[in-house]
Amino acid sequence: MVRRPLGNHHDGPDTLLVTSDTTQTGAVKVQTESDSHELRNLIRRARVVLWDFDGPICRLFANHSAERVASDLVSWLEGRGLHGLLTESERESLDPHVVLRAVDRRHPGSDLVADLEARLTQEERMAASSAMPTAYADPLIRTWTAVGARLAITTNNSPLVVGEYLTGRGLVPCFQPHIYGRTQELHLLKPDPHCLNRALSAIGAAPSDALMIGDTPSDHEAAARAGVPFLGFARNERKAKLLKAAGADAVLTSLEPLLALLRA
């Protein structure tokens, strides 16, 4: 992909908007004028902005390894004689949500699932205390609120954890009461669009008037199923490739161009 940073020239790492018609040659990065126009159009149409939490707003497990959390959940299950409950790939996934959903598929609504979800929430709360804010997220959230957009959180993380993090950053007023996270109905986690539909219904907005910012293929799928335009955020090239492979038309590697466009 050949890309160029959006906005004015600045020192430091380039900001990339990866779109379906961009190409790359070595380390050269070029952002076309049409890509900038596409991003501007996404912003202009967005009366409501639906944010995924872990990724676009912060790195929840920046200092509290998600891989270790997943391993601990697997060990907890094995300590109860439930080694055979997970497949080998599920045990080795290193993703706590994969473990949780696998158990829920086999024992939906059980006390076992409730206990496992409570353990994950506890781990997420510990992680939130040392989470790393995503660059430009805080001022972008405040600026978007100031110019009149309605914001909501649509995440697979615990809403309790989201609330604690946002409180610590002084961002709760930008979202409250629209924080829609994991419930006991785990089959409704993204890529199911349930949390997006809840947000749109509560705010009273049409899907076409919204924009979702997410960093995973499941975010993209949930947005597509809800009929909501999607803007991908990828903190590295690997995540950008995953989003593009999932069909995301626009992927940013920094939130800076969004902030610059809103301020302009």
Brief summary of the model shown:
The protein is built from twelve helices and nine strands. The strands form two sheets. Strands 1-9-8-7-2-5-6 form a seven-stranded mixed beta sheet, with helices on both faces. It has a two-stranded antiparallel ribbon with strand order 3-4.
Q: Mind explaining what this structure looks like?
A:
The protein is of the alpha/beta class and 264 residues long. Helix content is 46%, strand content 11%. It has twelve helices and nine strands. The strands form two sheets. The protein has a seven-stranded mixed beta sheet with strand order 1-9-8-7-2-5-6, sandwiched between helices. Strand 8 (230-233), helix 11 (237-245) and strand 9 form a beta-alpha-beta unit. Helix 6 runs parallel beside helix 12. The longest helix is centred in the middle third of the chain and has 18 residues, at 111-128. The protein is globular and about 60 Å long. The chain starts with 16 loop residues before the first strand and ends with a helix. The relative contact order is 0.18. The model is unreliable at 1-15 and 19-33 (pLDDT under 50).
